[in-house]
Amino acid sequence: MEKTDKADLFQVLEEDNYFGAETFDFHGKLVSRDLLDSIIELNFLAAYVPLYSESRSINVLDIGAGYGRLAHRMTAACPNVGKYFCTDAVPESTFLSQYYLAFRNVLDRCAVVPLDKVTELRSIPIELAINVHSFTECRGRVVAWWLEELSAIKIPWLFIETDFGLTSRDGYGVRDDFREKIEESGYRLIVQQPKFAQSQILRDHGLYPSEFYLFRRT
Fold it and tell me: How many folded domains does the chain comprise?
């Protein structure tokens, strides 16, 4: 963690054992997968995207935001994040995200956007789009629609985390590579690295390994 956590988020962020998160004690600090995954992701992003710039705030769009885990963590860790927009195609996730972020008292900086309202974001400057493990659950045509929307909003940075590569789920046991669709949408790959980039042991044996992809709009 010391090699990964350049932003010292292990000291900033806390786990409170709410909402049934599986936790364990690590040298006197309560930790969870929610906490550790967030620290790793935020450190990766901070190395390339100005999450801690003092000169301006940035807005973020989280596609497939689930219950709002990363929205909660990023707004707690990055004071210059202006507005964090959460959206999800699953209505239950939209409801849970609204409830969770209200409980965390961060709705002043987070907004839950129903899928049918996403096009209204085109008039808002958004610097970073995030997709954690949801494009790989979608059909290729859904991924293509989202990429068209990101182009319409003109979002410069796109972060994708996946454990199935850049592939969509187009049938039982059938996966389709959408890397070309990303490039056709005007994005080029800036960096690709494993989630556990600092540890070969974790890359070989760690739980929930995945791959990080960061794209920049050209």
Answer: 1
Residues in the chain: 218
Q: Indicate whether this model's pTM tops 0.90.
A: yes
Q: Record the tokens describing residue 182, joined without a space.
A: 């990303």
CATH number at residue 25: 3.40.50.150
Domain assignment of residue 73, yes or no: yes
Sequence-ordered list of residues with C-beta below 8 angstroms from that of 63, at least 6 positions apart, any chain: 87, 88, 129, 130, 131, 134, 135, 146
Q: Is 1 inside any structural domain?
A: no
Written as one string, the DSSP assignment of 25-57 is: EETTEEEEHHHHHHHHHHHHHHTTS-TT-SS--
Interval 40-97: pLDDT, tens? 999 999 999 998 877 778 999 999 999 999 999 999 999 899 999 999 999 999 999 9
